[in-house]
C-alpha cells in the first residue's frame, strides 16, 4: 500500500508534459529505496552486535533505530504535505472495471450506453496494461534468485580477502550499491546517448531490453557454475582417492566470490531497465482514477514470480541446468513482451494523448491547477 501510493503521489507532482522529469523521478525514487537498503544492511548488524541491557546482542537497538528513522520520515512527510499537489480519489475503479467487463461479456445493452464511453475506454486501457504485466512474473522469478540460489552459489566459493572472509549473503549488498551508482549513469549518459543516436527510450523498449539483459546475467551465472564444476572434476581426476562434490570441495580451491560480480552487474542493469521503467509505465499509461491500482497490480507480479520459482525449481536438482533453463525462460519472456508491446503500444499511446488533452481542458480553471501552478512558480 505504501509503495504504490508513494510512487503515484510522487508522479502527481509533475505536469503532463514533463515526461523526462517523470522518468527521472522514478529513477531517484528507486535510488532512495536502494540507498535505504544499503544503509540498513550495513548498519543493522553493527547495532545488533552491540552489548546492551546485560545481553551480548542488542536487538532493541537494531529494531529501535529503524523505527526512529520511520518516525522522522513520517514527520517530514506531514510537515511538507502542504506543498504537495493532492489529487482526490475518483470513486472505486475496481468496481467500475468489473461492471464494464460484466456488461460487455453478459449484458444485453452496450457498456458505452450504461456507463459512458470514457469508463469503457479506461477499462480497455487497464486490460492493455495488464497484458504488458503478463511476462513480468518471469522477470521477478530470475531477479529474486539473488537472495536464494545465487547466495547458495556464493556459499560454495572462496570468500577470502586477506584476513577477512566475505559471507555469502553479504554479496547481496553489491546489487543496491550498483543500483545507486548506475542510476545516475543511465540518466546522465545512457538514455541521452540513446536519444542522440536515434534509439527509442520508450518504456516498452527499455523493458524488453532489460529482460534480455536479465537472461544474459543467468547465462553468465551458468558459465560460472560450469567453471566451478570443472574445478571439482579436475580435483577428482588428480585425487581419485579423495573424491569431492561441488558442496564438499574446499572453498580455497574454488573460484573467488568476486567472480559473481559480472552477473550481479548485468542483473542490476536489467533491474534499472525493467523495475524502474515499469513503475513509470504503470503510472504514465494508467487512467487517472486507476494509477494506484495499476501500481499495486505491478507489485503483485512479484508474488507470482516467486510462485513460478517454486514450480520450475523441481525441473532439475542440478544448479547448472537450472541457470541455463532460467535464461531460456527469460528469453521467451522477452520475446513475449516484445509481441505484447507491439500489439498494445499504439492504443496505449493514443489513450494517453487523449487523456492528457482531456485533463488539460477539464483542469483549466480548477483550484487544483491553480495550486499546481503556484507550487511551480514558488
Could you characterize what this model shows?
This protein is mostly helical. The protein has helices at 2-11, 19-48, 59-80, 93-106, 111-115, 117-133, 136-143, 149-155, 174-196, 203-238, 261-284, 291-312, 319-362, 367-377, and strands at 160-161, 164-165. A two-stranded antiparallel ribbon has the order 1-2. Strand 1 (160-161) and strand 2 (164-165) form a beta hairpin. Helix 1 crosses helix 12. The longest helix has 44 residues, at 319-362. The chain is globular, with a radius of gyration of 24 Å. It starts with a helix and ends with a helix. The relative contact order is 0.14.
What's the SSE blueprint?
Blueprint: H1 2-11, H2 19-48, H3 59-80, H4 93-106, H5 111-115, H6 117-133, H7 136-143, H8 149-155, E1 160-161, E2 164-165, H9 174-196, H10 203-238, H11 261-284, H12 291-312, H13 319-362, H14 367-377
Antiparallel strand pairs: 1-2
Helix pairs in contact: 1-12, 2-3, 2-9, 2-11, 4-6, 6-12, 6-13, 7-12, 7-13, 9-11, 10-11, 10-13, 11-12
Would you tell me the structural class of the helices and strands? mainly alpha
Largest sheet, strands/sense/barrel: 2 strands, antiparallel
Helical coverage, percent range: over 70%
Low-confidence runs: 360-378
Report the C-alpha radius of gyration, rounded. 24 Å
Portion in beta strands: under 5%
Amino acid at each position: 500500500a505504501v509503495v504504490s501510493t508513494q510512487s503515484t503521489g510522487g508522479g502527481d507532482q509533475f505536469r503532463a508534459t514533463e515526461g523526462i522529469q517523470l522518468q527521472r523521478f522514478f529513477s531517484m525514487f528507486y535510488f532512495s529505496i536502494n540507498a535505504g537498503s544499503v544503509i540498513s544492511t550495513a548498519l543493522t548488524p553493527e547495532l545488533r552486535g552491540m552489548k546492551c541491557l546485560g545481553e551480548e546482542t542488542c536487538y532493541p537497538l537494531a529494531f529501535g533505530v529503524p523505527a526512529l528513522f520511520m518516525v522522522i520520515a513520517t514527520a517530514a512527510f506531514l510537515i511538507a504535505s502542504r506543498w504537495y499537489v493532492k489529487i482526490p480519489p475518483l470513486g472505486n475503479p475496481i468496481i467500475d472495471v468489473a461492471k464494464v467487463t460484466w456488461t460487455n461479456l453478459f449484458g444485453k445493452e452496450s457498456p458505452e450506453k450504461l456507463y459512458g464511453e470514457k469508463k469503457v475506454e479506461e477499462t480497455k486501457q487497464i486490460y492493455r496494461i495488464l497484458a504488458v504485466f503478463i511476462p513480468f512474473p518471469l522477470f521477478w522469478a530470475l531477479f529474486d534468485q539473488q537472495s536464494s540460489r545465487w547466495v547458495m552459489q556464493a556459499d560454495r566459493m572462496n570468500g577470502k580477502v586477506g584476513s577477512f572472509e566475505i559471507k555469502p549473503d553479504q554479496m547481496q549488498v553489491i546489487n543496491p550499491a550498483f543500483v545507486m551508482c548506475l542510476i545516475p549513469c543511465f540518466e546522465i549518459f545512457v538514455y541521452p546517448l540513446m536519444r542522440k543516436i536515434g534509439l527509442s527510450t520508450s518504456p516498452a523498449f527499455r523493458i524488453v531490453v532489460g529482460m534480455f539483459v536479465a537472461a544474459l546475467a543467468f547465462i553468465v551465472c551458468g558459465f560460472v557454475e560450469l567453471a566451478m564444476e570443472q574445478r571439482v572434476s579436475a580435483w577428482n581426476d588428480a585425487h581419485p582417492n579423495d573424491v569431492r562434490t561441488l558442496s564438499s570441495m574446499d572453498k580455497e580451491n574454488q573460484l573467488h566470490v568476486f567472480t559473481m560480480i559480472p552477473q550481479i552487474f548485468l542483473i542490476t542493469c536489467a533491474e534499472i531497465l525493467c523495475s524502474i521503467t515499469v513503475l513509470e509505465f504503470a503510472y504514465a499509461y494508467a487512467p487517472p482514477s486507476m494509477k494506484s491500482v495499476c501500481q499495486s497490480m505491478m507489485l503483485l507480479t512479484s508474488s507470482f514470480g516467486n510462485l513460478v520459482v517454486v514450480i520450475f525449481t523441481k525441473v532439475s536438482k542440478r544448479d547448472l541446468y537450472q541457470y541455463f533453463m532460467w535464461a531460456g525462460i527469460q528469453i521467451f519472456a522477452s520475446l513475449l513482451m516484445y509481441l505484447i508491446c507491439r500489439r498494445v503500444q499504439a492504443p496505449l499511446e493514443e489513450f494517453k494523448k487523449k487523456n492528457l488533452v482531456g485533463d488539460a481542458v477539464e483542469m483549466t480553471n480548477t483550484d487544483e491547477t491553480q495550486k499546481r501552478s503556484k507550487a511551480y512558480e514558488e
